[in-house]
Each structure stands twice: as structure tokens, then as C-alpha cells.
Amino acid sequence: MVTAIVFIKADVARIPEVAEQVAAIDGVSEVYSVTGALDLIAMVRVAHHDDLASVIPDHVNRVPGVLSTETHIAFRTYSTHDLEAAFSLGQEDGV
Q1: How far apart are CA 87 and CA 91, in angstroms?
Q2: Residue 72: helix, strand or coil by DSSP?
């Protein structure tokens, strides 16, 4: 599984429609509206690295109202569960 985080700048008047259209694309698992320099962040999860080319430039970038994107590919995933397990290494139960 390949995960990419896509920063999206959108036409401000069209943010809700852009978010809904991006969320409907196969491979996009979530879309968040955010504050700051970006308008939306999309989480893309695909089986193969090459699939990103289909999802991002062929679909996300072509949604009307998307002005620009910046894609970051995740190397490793850390979750609260993973961090709790890491911090508990070497500790005895109940300590």
C-alpha cells in the first residue's frame, strides 16, 4: 500500500464541491478542509506507486476548481497504538 498526502489549493468559492469531487475519486480515502495556506488535504491510498499517476495528475488535478496540488509520499506510518507499544518496550506490566 502506498500512501500519498496531497495538498490542494482550490478556488475558494468552490471548496465544498472540489472536496466532494476529490473524495469521490477511486484511491482517495479522505479529504480534509484545513486552515492556513492550503484549502484541502487529500489522503490517497493505492496498491502500487504507479497508481498515483492515475489518481493525482489524471483525476485530482483535473477537478474543476483545483488550482494546484503538492504531493507528499509517506514512507512509514506511525499511529498512537504504534507509539504506545514503542514506549512500553522494556517496561514490566503495571510499572
Answers
A1: 8
A2: strand
pLDDT single digits (tens) 18-56? 999 999 999 999 999 999 999 999 999 999 999 999 999
Rounded to the nearest 5°, which phi and psi values hold at 71? -110, 135
Q: What is the pLDDT of residue 87?
A: 60
Residue that is written with C-alpha cell 503538492 in the block: 70
DSSP per residue, 4-70: EEEEEEE-GGGHHHHHHHHHTSTTEEEEEE-SSS-SEEEEEEESSTTHHHHHTTTTGGGSTTEEEEE
Cβ atoms of 71 and 56 within 8 Å: the answer is: yes
Neighbours of 36 (CB within 10 A): 6
Are the beta carbons of 3 and 43 closer than 8 angstroms?
yes
